[in-house]
Amino acid sequence: MALLIIVTFLSAFLLFQIELVIAKLFLPNYGGSYLVWGACIVFFQAVLLAGYIFAHTFLRRLGASRYLKVHLGLLLVPLLFFPLRDLHLSFSSVYLPLVLDIFWRLTITIGPVFFALSTMSLVTQSWLSSSLLKGKDNPYGLYAVSNLGSLAALFTYPFIFEQYLTNTEQLQIWRVLYLVLVFGNVLAWRMIKIDARHLDKTEDVISSPATGWQILRWLCLGAAGVVMFMSVTNIITYEVAPVPLLWVIPLGIYLMAFILNFKKNPWCPSWMIRYIGPIIGFQVMMYFLSQKHFLPVLLMIALLCGFLFFICMYTQHQLIRSKPSSSAQMTLFYVMISLGGFLGGILTSWIVPLVSNALIEYLIGLLLVAFMMPQASSRMPVWKLCLSVIGVALVFFVWPHFVKEYHLWSFVLLWVAVWFSFLGLGSDKKILAAVLGGIILVTPVLESIWQGEHFLVKKRNYYGIYEVYDNKDGIRVLVHGTTLHGLEFIDQERRRVPIGYYSPASAIGSLLINDTFQAKRIGVIGLGTGTLSMYSKLSCPVDYYELDADVYKLASDYFWYITQAPGEVNVILGDARLSLKEAPDAAYDVLAIDAFSGDAIPTHLVNRDVLKEYRRKLTPRGAIVFHITNRYLNLEPVLAKIAADSGAYVAVKDVGDEGVNMRSIWCILTWDDDRFIKLITQEDWQPLEISPKDQGRIWTDDYSTILPIINMGELAISLEAFKPLTK
């Protein structure tokens, strides 16, 4: 039994970790666009589902005893590819679209080993149920072990493996652990005897098949959990705090709920089941409350994740309660959960961003949960249900009109109203589902009410949500989630004045005005609203490298910087690292890197290896300037170490809020000593040195970790400044 637990845990650990390692390895080779990560995720989900279906099909046809021989062969086949052979991750010689090329490269590298690992959880559970071991009556406990292995991989990767090991070293350790797994399976095959009653594969034939409703229930509950944890991740990173690594919390909660409900002695408090109606109501409330930005960041994250835990516990509890009565149907049970998770992932990450400008996948997940609620034995009186519906309308349409800033008792009233309204609705799942469906339909109206802004345009795509609006100071604003991308005066007389992070008083503005590097051509990675276009000249064009075509459209249609620039402006769409390869060498006197936005830190654009590529595109006396303004990350030590390794001079300039200037921090690297001295002595740049506490590995394509540079104190500041009793 211990051996089965070990191989189950280790296989899930390796399965989950290889996803993280490989996706990170792909970024420098294929660029850092969402399509790279998105394509990897879809591939992993598809192969995981294929592995479940394969194991389910052949376990039914061959029986556990015969299938184990197939299973051992399946684990040995990958040794012909990876992990014994090196990975080749660069573009293939065949000219394929990006996504297809990624799929092909994944298939011929880690495809076989990933497929073999994806079958392990089903195999070990079937192995246990067919054996003579003591725990055979409850094989579902191994599913909890499997999720525990995934959870261990999730939390050890950023905090241990990524922080202390290069990608190459991680792969070497992974190879060794896979060989240990193969040995463990062979040992288990020799030691664990199959019950004679299971040697015949006819058990499936005489077992009662699962009903269509059961199968649909497994599918929807599997989808609901995935949709909820992914949508909470989106809300946290888009609306609350774009902090790297926060995404591990919702995923960890999702896995923990599986562990608690599928372990040998399941744990799920009865009150979570009894009050699921109000819990769903509080989830809906948190969706809209996150857009008002009243509460401290830490409190918002805690509330969102707390209610997510309740929802995941409910869905996983309903799954284990509806598990098949016969172990012969167990593999079908897991296939449907996996299929639900696959469909939920596709819906959340690929479909909804194309059909909605809001994060409605969050509400869709709650709707799925409501549909899967058991119908109460008795219904509430009509008048009570009507009061509940009226209460919901008052909460979501009236409350935000009267509450423009935080007030303690207004929040108490909000929570009480939500509790009693959804307590009544929770007694009738059809009415609850109808109310949630109605909220989804009017979400655009509700978001406008809760946010208190009239948006000129709101656009969502795979990179997030963009909003353009005019504020009360006569300034047009482009926001990406919680990240400000650019500002511009609305009136015609001032619209040509660069403002915000790029004003004439900013580090980059004064650098270009003083023409310290005598620029004849400027390159900029990251478009925003195109503010730096105003520093172009007839003799000095500006080339923008922009990943997202929608940003270019918004900058062109709603802002005037690009169209009214004094000089030539060119926009090259695509990942900058790939696009820059097409530019001639020594093309730029100034190359500005402005592609950092909160959680989406493109590490492949700021490391020692990419600096060599930048330098080839730079004139000998030119400079590379990084925009490193960020509340939650301190990139100064990263750039200081990269500069020292390359022999560059490095300095920073921090200009605070003043007039049309917004506080911004820029870091410059140059190899020209005369111009660097001028920056220090005449333009107030400050030399940057590596402090003793920042000693460590340099970021490269093979190594990067954001953990040491995260400033978690910023999250606590909002909590310290929050004094709810004073308002």
Task: Describe this protein with a few key phrases.
55% helix, alpha/beta, 727 residues, single chain, four-stranded antiparallel sheet, eight-stranded mixed sheet
TL;DR?
This protein is of the alpha/beta class and 727 residues long.
Polypeptide structure, described:
The protein has 727 residues and is an alpha/beta fold. The chain has helices at residues 2-30, 34-76, 98-109, 111-118, 120-129, 141-164, 167-191, 203-206, 212-240, 248-262, 270-274, 276-289, 297-321, 330-355, 361-371, 382-402, 408-425, 429-441, 443-451, 507-514, 549-558, 576-579, 608-616, 636-646, 673-682, 713-720; strands spanning 455-461, 464-470, 475-480, 483-489, 522-525, 542-546, 569-573, 588-593, 618-627, 649-655, 664-670, 686-687. The strands form 2 sheets. An 8-stranded mixed beta sheet has the order 7-6-5-8-9-11-10-12, sandwiched between helices. The chain has a 4-stranded antiparallel beta sheet with strand order 1-2-3-4, covered by helices on one side. β8, α23 and β9 form a beta-alpha-beta unit. α1 runs antiparallel to α5 (120-129), α2 (34-76) crosses α4 (111-118) and α2 runs antiparallel to α14 (330-355). Mean pLDDT is 89; it is low at 201-206.
